[in-house]
Amino acid sequence: MPARSTIRAVAGVLAAATVVAAVQPGGASAAGGGQKTKKADLSVTALSGVPSTVARTVPLPLTATVRNRGKVTATKGTVTLWWSADTRAGGDTLLARVGAPGLGPGRTAEVEASASIPAAVTGGGYVLACSTSPKDASSRNDCKASTPTTVPAVVTTPTSPTTPQQPTPQESLGDPISGELRGDLHFVDEESKAQGTWSDTWDYRADVSVNLAISGPDVLDSKVTSSASEYDLYGKRRTHQADPTCSRTDEETHTGSGRFPWTGDPYQDRITADIATIDLSEVSMVIYMRYDQDNKSTTCEGTTSRTGKATTIIELEFVQVSRTAKSIRYAVKGYHDVDSTTSEFETLTGQLELSLD
Length: 357
Hints:
5-stranded antiparallel sheet; Immunoglobulin-like
C-alpha cells in the first residue's frame, strides 16, 4: 500500500460521519479462472436507522453495511445517502456523502452517518445508500433502500392581516448584517491493514473550534473576523515489516495546536470564511493547520529520526439545514484538500450556527 501522505482534509457531505473498520471476513476467494480481469465490487448490503416516520431537519443516525463482492481489494470509496420517492437511484435528493474504507475480497465494514431530511420534503419515500469505488466491477448492486418512511406534512395556521409573518434572515440585499458564526468540527482518518508479515496502522485526528464574527452594510460587503478560533491536530502511524534477517518499523507522529492567526490579510490569515449566497444559505471556509512531523525508523542496524513542519489546508463548503428569524444552522456540503478534489481524512462531523444580532 502506498504510504499516507501529509494529513489532508476530507470528502464532503451535507452531514458527517464515522467509519468503523472492516470486521467481517467473507467467503470470497481471490482466485479466478480464464483471462477475465479481476475487479473489486463495492456494494451496500444493509441500511439501518430509518424510522417509519421522519421529522424534517432532525439528524438521523444511519448505518450502512458495505461489502466488497469482488475478487480483489477495493480502494477507499464513498457511500452517498439520498432521499428517494422509490427504491431506484436517479433524480433523488442528496442527504449526505461519507467515506468508505478499502476492503479486501469478501470483507465488510459499517459506515455511520448523520443525515437530515430537507425541510421541503413531504410524503412517503425511502433513504437510499449507494456505494462507489474507483474501478468498481459493477454498479447494479451498489444501492440499498431503507424500509418505507413518511415525512408528515407541515400544518400551518393562516395569519391575519394584522399579524406579521416571521421574517427570514437577510431578506434584502441592502440589509445590514451582524452576527457570530460558531461551531465545532471533527476530522478523523483511521485504518489498520495487515498482510503476511507486513502491517500498517494509523489514526489521525483534528478538532477545530470555529468562532467568527460577521458584520457589514449588506451580505456582499460583509467582513468575517476571527479572534478565538483554534485547532488541535494529532495522530500516529506505525508500519512494520517482520523479517527473520532484519525487521523494520517506521513510526510517524503529527502534533499541532493553537489559535488560528488572523490579521485581516487573506494571504496571512489561517482561517477565512465568506457568505457564499445573498440569502445566507451557504458558507465557504478555508482552514490552515500547521503541525510538527516526527519520523523514526528502526531496523537491526539501529534507529534514525528526522523532524519537520507541515501544513494541511482544507477547503470546506456548508449549506443551510434549518433557520429561524435569528439563527441559521449549517451542515457540511463538501470538503477537500486545497490541492486535490478529495481528502485523506475519512470523516468529518460537526455543524456551524450563525446567530444574528
